[in-house]
Design brief:
- The structure is a homodimer of 206-residue chains.
- Chain A has helices at residues 7-21, 29-36, 40-46, 50-73, 79-101, 108-116, 121-147, 156-177, 186-194, 200-203.
- With 206 residues, chain A is mainly α.
- In chain A, 45% of the residues are buried.
- Chain A is elongated, with a radius of gyration of 19 Å.
- Chain A has a single domain (58-203), classed as Tetracycline Repressor, domain 2 (Orthogonal Bundle).
- In chain A, helix 6 (108-116) packs across helix 7 (121-147).
- Chain A binds chain B through residues 21-26, 103, 105-106, 110-111, 113-119, 124, 127-128, 131, 158, 161-162, 164-170, 172-173, 175-178, 182, 185, 188-189, 192-193, 195, and chain B through 21-26, 103, 105-106, 110-111, 113-119, 124, 127-128, 131, 158, 161-162, 164-170, 172-173, 175-178, 182, 185, 188-189, 192-193, 195.
- Chain B binds a DNA duplex (30 and 30 nucleotides) through residues 1-5, 7, 28-30, 38-46, 49-50.
DNA sequence: CTTATAGTTGACTAACTAGTAAACAATTGC
DNA sequence: GCAATTGTTTACTAGTTAGTCAACTATAAG
């Protein structure tokens, strides 16, 4: 009961859009309100600050938008295909973003996380917990790959962090040089790190 | 002739300090002036904007502070020791920063680059050119390692980007989780990527 | 000592930004 | 229809921020 509205969702979507394209610090509450077509009074009706909105918006971006893709990609029976499939997804997503915004935007969690982790603990916590969720997909893929003998025995935690690191590292580079093409190197980098034998697709996959 | 001053240098040092610790967007010109103990009129005597100061400050940080370390580290005759020596340097630098600021600050070029590459072209250009300079050290190390048969033949550009990506990726993660310890994984990640035989130090190094 | 030059200062403006409050409008259950 | 509730709007304040300017000060060369 009471008046209904999707202003809350519009504010979260606008915040993600603007912050991903520019940065957390460059986007003001007025900017977000303008993009969402919501007056500032309504903003403060839903959120007590930009930081609080950002936490909800990042949570929504992960849970509603990105996690479903992860679920699908990491459901593949062949663990190495989960990983290459994820890299394909990253690449095509960045291509799509570049067409839409004219810019390679990289990973919003990395960009925002790196930008404000020393200032807004709540955002840092949210980014870290999303990072942990991502990590678990990789971890079980590597675990399965070892179990199926697609890759040699290894330090699970270390390899998981490595895969996350190359993905985040290349996404950051891609954003800075405004070029998604370097993401195409991810599969061979990952296979080196996992010590996949030279022609994995021919032997193990398909 | 005329009045002398180190206010220009103090402004650049203050800008690097503050922006590295917080972020580009979180730091105002007033903040920088306060830290440098310089009045705003003098700020504008030397720099026409925060973005212009940032370009000079980043250039100074690279040329005066960090490049000399690279020169020394990458002068080692054994190319793989250059790479591990660089990773040692990164780790000890982050430990030092954590002791000084209570925070793992990561790579300033990555953080600032990722934050404002879509907004301030001049800063993006500077960060990219510093990245290119860094890359050249790695490139010749890999080249030499191949020539000396310490590692197998490989795609030079790809491996160079890979090493940069793992370093940047882990530095970003270290900043977000406020923990420099994950940087200790860099050498073994790099050796996987370069396909160094299992006990490189025993065989090739020392 | 003089003077041109290089640098400094503090007070100022205009614009922006976060945040508030009180009146108003829509929706649903009764 | 009429409450009760939920959401919206406008106009407002107070504080911050970038940027300017004219008067002032220190320095070194001649």
């Amino acid at each position: 009961m009471g008046r209904t509205s999707d202003a809350r969702e519009r504010l979260m979507a606008a915040a993600v859009d603007l912050i991903w394209e520019e940065s957390y610090g460059a986007v003001t509450i007025d900017d977000i309100c303008l993009r969402a077509d919501v007056r500032k009074g309504s903003f403060y009706y839903f959120f007590e600050s930009k930081a609080v909105l950002a936490v909800f918006a990042l949570d929504r971006l992960w849970g509603e938008v990105l996690k479903p893709h992860y679920q699908e990609i990491f459901a593949h029976p062949l663990p190495l295909v989960r990983i290459t499939g994820y890299f394909d997804f990253l690449y095509s997503k960045q291509i799509e973003l570049k067409q839409k915004y004219g810019k390679t935007l990289g990973c919003p969690f990395c960009s925002v996380g790196s930008e404000i982790c020393t200032q807004e603990e709540s955002i840092r916590d949210k980014v870290q917990s999303i990072g942990d969720a991502k990590r678990s997909y990789f971890k079980s893929a590597i675990e399965d790959a070892v179990a199926m003998k697609h890759i040699p025995q290894c330090n699970l935690a270390e390899k998981t962090d490595s895969l996350i690191a190359i993905a985040d590292g290349l996404l950051t580079q891609a954003r800075i040089i405004n070029n998604p093409e370097i993401l195409l190197r991810l599969p061979s980098m990952a296979f080196d790190l996992l010590r996949v034998s030279s022609h994995p697709y021919a032997e193990v996959l398909v």
